[in-house]
Amino acid sequence: MLRTTVALFALISLPVLAADEWPRAHADIVDRDGETIGQAELIQAAAGTLIRLTLEGLPPGPKAIHIHAVGSCDDHCDGFMESGGHLNPDGREHGLLNPDGPDAGDLPNFFVHDSGLAWAEFYTTAASLDGSFGATILDDDGAALVIHENPDDHFSQPIGGAGARIACGVIRPSDAWELPKPNNP
User: How far apart are CA 68 and CA 82, in angstroms?
Assistant: First the structure.
């Protein structure tokens, strides 16, 4: 009975947020020419982060997408290498199918149609915008969504055979939500 009471009290004391109050972020996705080809919206919920992706102008076929550890896409001509490796503060192996993984930046593949259009949703429990669970996306050096030319096999190292980085978007807090400032004692 005591455990049930404590659990019920814990649930009652949690803040209740309406869907429009969840932390949000966005990214403008650019190609290797620096042209905007789409957007991503990130919405943090109680136990996971939803990523919505809308793109136009990529080569058709399956593509890998990952959350990279540094919020930079300025070096578009050089293949977006400034975005660093995957978001991976725990040093896990790459791959959704890897028994020693996945890292916090791993996401499922998506498909680009012959028209160059793509729309996808991903959900991850391994990363949050504000660090309330999993890896922190909006930390001091930010993060980026990086799209690769091939699909990810979700196992081989270091990037599952995904190939070159062909598009990138810096993840930024949306206007409706600002990253909370740490409390100073």
Answer: 10
Of 120, 121, 115, nearest to 56 (Cα)? 115
Pairing verdict, β 110-112 and 65-68:
unpaired
Pairing between β-strand 127-128 and β-strand 61-63 as defined by DSSP bridges: unpaired
Place of tokens 């499922």: 108
For 43, phi then psi, to 5°, come to -130, 120
d(CA 67, CA 147): 9
Q: What is the pLDDT of residues 27-62, one digit of tens each?
A: 999 999 999 999 999 999 989 999 999 999 999 999
Q: Is the dihedral of CA 38, 22, 131, 173 positive or negative?
A: positive
